[in-house]
Design goal:
By secondary structure, this protein is mainly beta. The chain has one helix at about 5-20; strands at about 25-35, 40-45, 50-55, 60-65, 70-75, 85-90, 95-100, 105-110, 115-120, 130, 135-140, 150-155, 160-165, 170-180, 185-190, 195-200, 205-210, 215-220, 225-235, 235-240, 250-255, 260-265, 270-275, 280-285, 290-295, 305-310, 315-320, 325-335. The protein has a domain at about 40-210: Methylamine Dehydrogenase, Chain H, CATH 2.130.10. The chain has 1 helix and 28 strands. The chain has a 4-stranded antiparallel β-sheet, with no helix packed on it. It has a 4-stranded antiparallel β-sheet with strand order 2-3-4-5, with no helix packed on it. The chain has a 4-stranded antiparallel β-sheet with strand order 6-7-8-9, with no helix packed on it.
Length: about 350
């Protein structure tokens, strides 16, 4: 028979034992070496038909095209200044690249990909999101200074023309789209707000101020629950908003240096990727509340990622300090993970 002290100790340690047995929310499937590239990264895009991954290697001044079948670089698009945002449009076989130092949006086509055109923007051209229904590309650009006004460019991809240039307070960070609601959400970090754009009228319809945290860089839209998840840096947090009204519903702590954020509708999960070297995972329940699923350690500076729903895979770019090559780590979700 166990003593009363032994029983008490067992009861106290039980929650920790259950936690230790719970699987991590993500597991490493494979690592793709990007040798000889040794660079920091910014954004990724995916070509399902050709099984290719695109990644902006900012300090290498290039976009690397990765053949996922062979796990190797199939093409390096060079001659860039500071490539940031990416968008692959499968219907036209076009890769769009925003360049922060060249202050322009470029489009590449063909096999191999070659430059097919460019549109002049302001400095720090950055993230973008594609509205497939209207063939419009929304691109954040500008530093917010007088010589480089902060804007969201609206580009007609059918004719590759600039059809609108919407003024915002400061540099636009991440963008995401609500296709059914005909809206684009834009994080304006330095003014602690989210701007809502009507894709039909190409006009700004709302400004939502954040109060629970600041430094809002990445965001992700959950169409099933009509929620907006916003990754913040001051302090590190995920703030949950009602996507109909902009009302802040809740917030949870997150890692420092949030840079990418994705929603997985199949498992109702949120993944926040931080430059401090971790992925924070959260579960969204039926009451629209979110709960932490734990932390996946990655590597310092690994702030760039892409969630590909069709594959149920998370690609994380890991910069290689020279002369070490950079790499892509490929993770899959673990369905049994619990909060």
């Amino acid at each position: 028979m166990k003593s009363p002290c032994s029983l008490l100790l067992a009861l106290l340690l039980a929650p920790f034992a259950v936690s230790a047995q719970s699987p991590a929310p993500l597991k490493l499937e494979k690592t793709i070496s990007l040798k000889p590239v040794s660079s920091k990264f910014d954004h990724l895009a995916f070509d399902a038909a050709a099984s290719r991954l695109f990644i902006t290697a900012t300090s290498n001044h290039s976009v690397e095209v990765i053949d996922l079948k062979t796990g190797s670089i199939s093409q390096s698009i060079t001659g860039l200044g500071k490539p940031h945002g990416l968008a692959w449009i499968a219907s036209t076989g076009s890769l769009y690249v925003s360049d922060g130092s060249l202050a322009e949006l470029r489009v590449y086509k063909g096999s191999p990909l070659v430059l097919a055109g460019s549109i002049k923007l302001s400095e720090d051209a950055d993230d973008m999101v594609y509205d497939e229904a209207n063939h419009l590309l929304f691109v954040g650009h500008g530093t917010g200074e007088a010589a480089s006004p902060a804007r969201v460019a609206v580009v007609d991809t059918a004719h590759f023309t600039l059809v609108a240039n919407l003024a915002v307070a400061t540099h636009p960070e991440a963008l995401d789209i609500d296709p059914a609601g005909h809206r684009v959400f834009v994080n304006i970090a330095d003014s602690n707000e989210i701007v809502v754009i009507d894709t039909a009228t190409r006009a700004i319809t709302a400004h939502w101020k954040l109060t629970k945290a600041a430094g809002n860089v990445p965001l992700a839209f959950d169409a099933d629950h009509n929620l907006l998840f916003v990754g913040c840096r001051k302090p590190g947090a995920v703030v949950v908003l009602d996507a109909a009204t902009g009302k802040e519903l809740s917030s949870l702590p997150a890692a420092a240096g949030a840079d990418d954020l994705f929603f997985d509708p199949a498992l109702r999960r949120v993944y926040l990727i931080a430059g401090s070297g971790e992925v924070d995972a959260y579960q969204v329940d039926e009451s629209k509340a979110i709960h932490s699923l734990g932390v996946l350690p990655t590597a310092s500076g690994a702030k760039t990622a892409l969630w590909v729903p069709a594959q149920d895979l998370l690609y994380v770019g890991v910069p290689g300090p020279a002369p070490q090559p950079s790499e892509i780590r490929v993770y899959s979700p673990v369905a049994g993970a619990k909060h």
